[in-house]
Write a structure and sequence with these properties.
Order of helices and strands: HHHHHHHHHHHHHH
Shape: extended
Largest sheet: none
Helix content: over 70%
Distance between the termini: 90 Å
Structural class: mainly alpha
Number of helices: 14
Strand content: under 5%
Radius of gyration: 34 Å
Number of strands: 0
Length: 410
């Protein structure tokens, strides 16, 4: 009896050997299990660190993205100056200086007018909305929400954001200068040291993959750079034309409306053109009194003609080397990025999607496209034959049942 008790007690003893058995012990876990657990723990901490870091470094990531796409857009100008025997670093400096001079000149010439017109336009938007709502109510007998309701809803929704903006408004200029200098420096290094940057990444790849990496990077840079450059050129042309037309027709806030139409129309696909044209037309309709409907109709006709001329003649010339994006994909990407990252995300959506589309076209597997029309006809014929065969089988089954029934005379 005592021996049995000692045996049970010895069986219940837990020692270090039972927790960590020898490698030859059948209870020993597989060798890969400890490594897998270690890698899972390491992956968890890395993911947690990356998540928390990204939330705190969002501004830095945004600046790097903006600089990357600006560098791609500036690359054609750098290559242009390199054709004259200028080295890449000096060509980059010259391109950046010319771009800054153009932007500064535009700000000095039109900056104050643009700001004044934007402020005045925002102040008169309630009156414009009231005029349009009154016209719709009197003409179509349809009531739309009053401007006071809309203003109250907007204030309730964005009051906290407006308060934060007012608190930090004093830091805006300083932050803008720091961000601008950072973007200029990153753009310079990406353009001037682009070859070294690519080489530093390629050296971590096998020799068989380095050629593909350089090819993908070069083609992506050319395509996305052409895409951004073409959009910027088309936006400048649209702003110039719209400002001339609106000022000639005597429409107020002509520069603010032209900038809105150029930026929204070129960087928001599909519906951006309609949104960009709608605001100048509505302002012309509401601000010109009795002549408002006539001037709005004239402006509508002019803008429609211009959009057709741009699509048929200007865009093919400007966008020869640009990337062609699917309209639905581009529109959904703008909505998604705008919802997640705000207006800046909507602006960066097209360059990001253009980069991803170029990489997928170069890396993704390509297959021969089938004749969809012929395939649909074949499927319909097969379905028709199946239905015919099924009807024949059902008819034969009915005849067999009918033949198997005993005759009433018998």
């Amino acid at each position: 009896m005592e021996n049995e008790k000692d045996f049970v007690t010895s069986e219940r003893k837990v020692g270090i050997q039972s927790i960590f058995p020898d490698q030859n012990d059948p209870k020993h876990p597989p060798i890969w299990l400890s490594r897998a657990i270690l890698w899972c723990i390491l992956a968890f901490f890395v993911a947690y660190f990356a998540w928390t870091s990204f939330s705190k470094l969002t501004e830095v990531v945004t600046i790097v993205l903006i600089s990357f796409f600006f560098a791609m857009a500036l690359e054609p100008a750098v290559e242009f100056f390199e054709k004259f025997g200028i080295n890449k670093k000096l060509a980059t400096i010259v391109s950046i200086i010319i771009a800054l001079i153009i932007v500064t000149a535009a700000i000095l010439m039109f900056g104050s007018i643009l700001i004044e017109q934007i402020v005045a336009l925002l102040q008169t938007l309630p009156d414009i909305y009231a005029t349009i709502s009154t016209y719709i109510s009197d003409t179509f007998h349809f009531q739309i929400p009053s401007n006071t309701d809309l203003i109250r809803t907007a204030l309730d929704k964005y009051a906290e954001q407006l308060g934060t903006t007012v608190v930090f408004a004093s830091f805006g200029l300083f932050t803008f200068v720091i961000d601008l200098l950072t973007i200029v420096l990153v753009v310079y290094f990406l353009c001037a040291e682009g070859d070294q940057f690519r080489a530093s990444i390629a050296k971590w790849l096998p020799s068989s993959k380095q050629r593909n990496f350089i090819r993908i990077y070069t083609i992506t840079q050319a395509k996305v750079g052409g895409f951004l450059g073409s959009r910027i050129i088309l936006a400048v042309i649209s702003i110039t034309f719209t400002s001339i037309v609106c000022s000639t027709l005597g429409i107020p806030y002509w520069l603010a409306l032209a900038v809105f139409m150029g930026v929204v129309g070129q960087f928001i696909p599909t519906v951006g053109v309609y949104i960009g044209c709608a605001l100048p037309i509505l302002v012309a309709f509401a601000s010109k009194g009795a002549d408002g409907p006539r001037i709005a109709l004239i402006l509508l006709v002019i803008l429609v003609v211009y959009q057709n001329i741009e699509n048929m003649f200007i865009m093919p010339i400007v966008s020869q080397e640009a990337l062609d994006l699917n309209a639905a994909v581009a529109f959904i990407s703008v909505l998604s990025f705008g919802y997640m990252f705000g207006p800046l995300g909507a602006f960066l959506a097209l360059p990001v999607v253009a980069t991803a589309a170029t990489v997928l076209k170069l890396v993704g597997a390509k297959y021969e496209t089938i004749d969809i029309g012929a395939m649909q006809v074949l499927q319909k014929n097969e379905l028709k034959e199946m239905r015919t065969q099924q009807d024949a089988e059902e008819k034969a089954a009915k005849e067999q049942k009918k033949a198997a029934r005993p005759h009433p005379d018998k």
